[in-house]
Specification:
Blueprint lengths: L41 E10 L2 E11 L4 E5 L6 H9 L6 E6 L2 E2 L10 E4 L11 H11 L4 H14 L15 H13 L5 E5 L7 H18 L2 E6 L2 H7 L2 E6 L2 E6 L1 H6 L4 H6 L5 E10 L2 E6 L4 E4 L9 E5 L6 E4 L10 E11 L3 E8 L4 E7 L3 H6 L6 E5 L6 E3 L19
Parallel strand pairs: 3-8, 3-9, 6-7, 7-8
Antiparallel strand pairs: 1-2, 1-4, 4-5, 9-10, 11-12, 11-14, 12-13, 14-20, 15-19, 16-17, 16-19, 17-18
The protein binds adenosine-5'-triphosphate.
The site of adenosine-5'-triphosphate has 13 residues, from strand 2 and helix 1.
């Protein structure tokens, strides 16, 4: 169904699929005539954007289905906003085509496209009431007054501001102002709503609350949402699918579970959570599976992933999937394990984060749930030799990133746009 994406398919055993909860629009989307179910809502066809010498977006091909909550995720400067702006018509493509509901809109200005954009800065008219702000687009289109009133009331109700219609924007909190901006965009019933870091200016608690609300609203209206963020958690929480971008290229497009559980490249593995990458050499590869001889000593077998013998690759295991064992207990019989030395141990409340340095100098992070206080007290400290083990299904092979890595940023220090 999806033809997408440069790179990585060889190492991706599981394919992107549209999740069951992806919804279809209910009414009013600006769609072309004919069979609109079979064409993607947004299609980027070999799109490149060049600013002088810099290729901000490179040969990007991507299909976004109708009613999908689709997120462009990546570090600052990777090209997500430029991609969004090309869909909106604020930026021209240097090469390639943009199609909306099957119609080529590449040469069309923004105001002729069936899109609306919500920005991080709410961009409300300060002198107009909330109602007038929301009504603005419909009034410009000369929609009749009673229809405007009904639509404005509907959208204010949807975003939880039915009682605030008469207020001015400066009498609202940041979160409320962003809801007004959302209502103002939705009132036009665009086929595609583009959202550029819309929660970026809000504090963490409000952000989390609005993430849930935005998802509910998107399901309610059934409009395609294309959402830009550098926040991995936000992307995982809200999206039907995520495109992870790095240096102008989409490295992986998948449902959140697969982006997290089956990162296709070392960049994706590092950007979505903690890397935990163990390097090694591919020593056998066939239909039955791939064997990687880790620099840390052991040989691990994984699902077939299109690797070639002799190739350098990495194996990834997520921190919560690693088990910490004392060396005295001996290797756990049924699962692979490697030895290392505890470098640090950090109490995080619900879990303890332990960093273990393996023999080949790879640092592995383990998250040990703090379910039993006595067990936590007995946990070995820095300098202790330990064994890390995992179940076979939790180790996956990933390949390097084309053109080298861009430094992945950990969750809490990701640069804010
Ligand atoms: P952020 O999260 O910081 O907004 P981003 O992933 O959205 O980052 P873009 O804004 O798309 O990144 O920028 C991609 C690259 O293109 C950056 O290197 C940026 O400096 C450059 N760029 C963007 N717009 C222009 C422009 N109008 N002129 C020149 N360079 C630009």
């Amino acid at each position: 169904m999806y033809k997408v994406y440069r790179a990585i398919t060889a190492f991706r055993p599981l394919r992107a699929r549209l999740p069951a909860h992806t919804v279809r629009p209910k009414e009013g989307a600006i769609a072309p005539q004919g069979d609109t179910e079979s064409v993607p809502s947004v299609r980027l066809d070999r799109v490149t954007k060049q600013f002088g010498e810099l290729k901000a977006v490179r040969d990007l091909t991507l299909d976004i289905e109708r009613g999908e909550f689709f997120t462009l995720l990546g570090p600052s400067g990777c090209g997500k906003t430029t991609t969004l702006r090309m869909v909106a018509g604020f930026e021209e493509t240097t090469e390639g085509r943009v199609l909306l509901d099957g119609e080529d809109v590449t040469g069309l200005p923004a105001f002729k496209r069936p899109t609306n954009t919500v920005f991080q800065s709410y961009a409300l008219f300060p002198h107009l009431s909330v109602e007038r702000n929301v009504a603005f687009g419909l009034e410009r289109k000369k929609v009749n007054r009673s229809r405007v009133r009904t639509r404005v009331a509907e959208e204010l109700e949807r975003v939880g501001l039915a009682a605030e219609g008469r207020r001015k924007p400066n009498q609202l909190s940041g979160g409320q102002q962003q809801r007004v901006a959302l209502a103002r965009a939705l009132v036009n019933r665009p086929a595609v709503l583009l959202l550029d870091e819309p929660l970026g200016a809000l504090d963490l608690k409000l952000r989390k609350q609005l993430q849930v609300e935005l998802k509910r609203i998107q399901r309610d209206v059934g409009i395609t949402f294309v959402y830009v963020t550098h926040d991995q958690e936000e992307a995982l929480t809200m999206s039907d699918r995520i495109a992870v971008m790095n240096r102008g290229v989409v490295e992986q497009v998948d449902v959140p579970e697969l982006v997290y559980e089956r990162p296709g490249t070392t960049f994706v593995a590092g950007f979505i959570g903690v890397s935990n990458l163990m390097p090694g050499d591919v020593v056998s590869a066939n239909g039955a599976g791939t064997e990687l001889k880790l620099d840390a000593g052991i040989t691990v077998r994984m699902e077939s992933a299109g690797a070639t013998v002799g190739e350098r690759a990495h194996a990834v295991v997520r921190p919560e999937k690693l088990e910490l064992h004392s060396l005295d207990a001996g290797p756990p019989g049924d699962r692979p394990s490697v030895e290392g030395i505890i470098e640090s141990s950090l109490y995080l409340g619900t879990a303890t984060q332990v960093v273990v340095r393996l023999g080949d100098d790879t640092a592995m992070t383990v998250l040990v749930p703090n379910t039993d206080e006595a067990a936590r007290q007995r946990m070995p400290g820095a300098g202790a030799r330990v064994r890390l083990a995992w179940a076979n299904e939790h180790i996956h092979i990933v390949r390097g990133t084309e053109g080298g890595e861009s430094a992945p940023q950990p969750l809490d220090t990701a640069e804010v746009a």
